[in-house]
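Input/output pair, single chain:
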Amino acid sequence: MPRRFVAGGIGAVMALGFYMVLGALAPTPPRLIVASPMESSAMTLRAPSIPVIDPTPARLVIPAISVDAAIEARGLDSNRNLATPKDYRDVAWYKLGPRPGEPGNAVINGHVNWWTGDAVFTHLSRLRIGDEVRVVRADGRTVVFKVSSKRTVDANARIPSLFAPSPDTTLTLITCSGTWNPMTQSDTQRLLVSATVA
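Output:
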């Protein structure tokens, strides 16, 4: 069954909120190029081609567990819980926090299974310390992380540090764990895999 984050749990932590102001990337200003007298008697302004810089995360690649998934930008759902991906094959990046590769802890979650069987993070628990986690940005650049720790917490645990501002560049992957509780329609635990930029 699809597994979601319940009110009072991780989503409740985010209700406290935090905001980060990100510095804009300033492109190189155009160069002033003067044509030779043989070419023209006028001064010509030429703007050099500036590559498009878009740090928005686009794909998550984890070779050790054969994950290559599209990244959905999500915030909070109507209950102010951490929004999960709409497609069980995708992952969801918490867009109210930092982008992967920026200072702070970027958060990405995914389903551990679905009505039809396996989902994107079915094998997340198999990751080992040192395994690579790659985030491919919309501009084609890749940010590489390495797994640094794993832990399991109660589904209702409050983890302020997960969303707090930090000078470190880290990534946390989250999925459901434990046993399915038919009363709450959710799993009893959450698996958190932390990674640091390589």
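The first helix runs from residue 10 to 16. The chain has one domain: 10-18+53-197.
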